[in-house]
Amino acid sequence: MKKNIGAQLALYPAPVIVVGAIVNDKPTWTLVAHAGTMAHSHLMVSLVYAHYINQEIIESKKLSVNIVDEAWLKEADRMGVISGNKEDKSESGKIDYHTFKPVLFEFPTYEYFVTGEKVGDCAKMN
C-alpha cells in the first residue's frame, strides 16, 4: 500500500496562525501556515530566515501565536502580504479571537478553508 509521492508538501490543510513579536520596540506580525506541535512542551514554527520578524524571535526566543478564525482572515492575510521592513504593522492591532473556528491553508492551491469551505485566496483579499 506504500506509494512514493516524491518531495511534496503533503501535510495540508494546516491551521493558519499569525506570529507576533516586538521588533525595534514595536509589535509586528506575520502569517504562518507552517506550524505544529512537536511535543506537549514544544511548538514548531517554520519561517524563512529573511522574514523581518525573525531578528527578534531568534534573539529573544519570544513570540506570540494567534490562531486565525474567519473574522480575522482579511487582516491576517494582509500581515502575510506586507513586509515589516517596508511598512509599520504596529498600528494594525492584534488578532483577538473569542470563538475557535480555525481557518486552514491548503497547499499547493494557496486557498483558505473554514471547515472545508473556501473563504479566500492567499494575497488576493486586499
TrEMBL record:
It comes from the Bacteria. This is Flavoredoxin.
